[in-house]
Amino acid sequence: MTTVTHRIKTYWEDTPPIIRWLCCVLIPLGITTGTIGLYGDSHGWWEERSFLANSLSSSTGFLFGAPFALAVLSHLGRAQTEAIERRAARRQSSRALAEFRELVLEAFTESTRSDPKSALDQLHPQAIEVQRQAIALRDAYQPAGGTWRIEGLDRFSVALTDFHESCKQLFELGASMENGATWAGKTSAQWNILDSEIRPQVSASGLSWMTPETSFKIAQSIRAVERGPRPWFAGQRKALGSLTVHRSFSTSTQQWAATRGSLKRMADESIAAVRWLAQMWWLVDSLDATRAIESQHQS
To answer: Which residue, 183, 181, 205, 203, is CA-closest to 194?
Structure first.
């Protein structure tokens, strides 16, 4: 009983104010004319007054029927409008989600777009190894007699070269910094469309959407991968070149400070590479959430 009462109350509150006003006016008038008609029938008022009796009964029917017809039609019209808006929201969200996925996958080469997450998983150990060796070089900088020597640089150079080659095979963004910035700009713009335009439409239509946590992480990942891998590519190569030239030198020379800075930069850029790949992995992983939402909207 409580549920029925709640539905009736909700139905009434959702009815447009003008129709509610008409219901409040016309229904009491209908009750009045109906009462007059019944009373007149019992006292013989309508004998030889058939036109007046018909007019009164017609008016009574109108006064009762019009409010109910208006109320029902208004809700039917609104239901139809909501259905049209829901279909439009489904179409727009499906199209925008598909475009977002395509943009994210543009970061990868053709051979890895079918399963970029697995490719990133395979690349991750190489990035971790480069990071480990770079930190070890930075922290294990030891003097040997009157000179400072950088031990393990050749081994690190091989690991870094292999890592960069793997990145080139995985990412289209490795060609230039401009590619990374352009990709990130388009991806960020498409995400802004999804978050600021599509999401409100979907929510207003009563359709499902990604959780706030997922939306936040996607936005965070896009900001983190904004320029692509090229910046830390360049930073690692420049630092490695400097270290290769000055791998052994007298502690009295001015190269001490420069080489120490190169070691620190190498470690920092290697840490940045691992973090970038982690954010890229999460961005790719979030595509599953967009597919799930699109599937729900199409069902």
So the answer is: 203
What pTM value is reported for the model? 0.69
Look at the block and give the residue holding tokens 């007059």. 36
Whether 67 contacts 22, CB under 8 Å: yes
| Cα dihedral: 46, 50, 56, 57 (round 10) | 100
What's the N-to-C CA distance of the chain in angstroms? 33
109, 61 contact by CB (below 8 A): no
Separation CA 196–CA 201 (nearest Å) = 9
- 81 torsion bin: left (phi>0), alpha (psi -120 to 50), beta (else): alpha
What are the tens digits of pLDDT across the range 165-191? 898 888 887 555 556 778 888 899 999
**Which single residue is written with the structure tokens 């599953």?**
288
For helices 50-105 and 177-193, give the axis angle rounded to 10 degrees: 160
Cα distance between residue 177 and residue 186, in whole Å: 14
Kindly tell me the number of DSSP H helices and DSSP E strands found in the chain: 11, 3
Name the nearest CA neighbour of 35 among 71, 19, 59, 66: 59
In which region does residue 44 sit, left (phi positive, over 0), alpha (psi from -120 to 50) or beta (all else)?
A: left
**What does DSSP assign to residue 171?**
B
Residue recorded with tokens 């991806």:
187
Query: Rounded CA gap, 180 and 183, in Å?
Result: 5
